[in-house]
Amino acid sequence: MNSSLAPSKTTVYVSNLAFSLTNNDLHKIFSKFGQVIKVTIVKDQYRRSKGVAFIQYLDRESAIQCSKSMDGTEMHSRRIKCSMARDNGRSSEFIKKKFYPDKSTCYECGEEGHLSYQCPKNSLGSRTPPKKKERKKRKKRQEENEYDEERQTDEEGEEPDMETLSAVIRLEQAKFESENKSDFVKKKRIKKNSYFSDEEELSD
Fold first, then answer.
1. CATH, residue 53
2. pTM summary value
């Protein structure tokens, strides 16, 4: 969804709905106009439907088509009213996704043994739950772990190439000696004894 669009720009206000229609029922009915992002049924203090709902679409075109096509149509012996929702200043609250940590009970009827997607009160039957999206943080963490594993594998598989390193040193030393010979000056060099002592010896 385009982040520049306010929820009211892609949301349809529906009224005079049958009280028996659930969140999942409305999702099924209004999905024919486009991808539905969120369905919110207005309920009273006893969690009973007031016959009013907000249908949020992925794009504005779907919302406009829905409001024009569904306005004045009859549904469950009621003539519903549809229009583009007006922003009352609480659009930021509306767009927030609700989380239901308790998966043991249905939030539609409050009974145990099923979730709202398979609630017996759904007038139009059960609905297939949407696929869960992988969180970006988890994906990023996984990519970092894979990179660390690859890097570790590379480090373990590569050993220092001492032969090549020695060849470079010998080459540089040969160049140095060649330059010294060109001056026809034979100098004595001092080098450390190979037995790790403090004694020094002369070399030709």
1. 3.30.70.330
2. 0.52
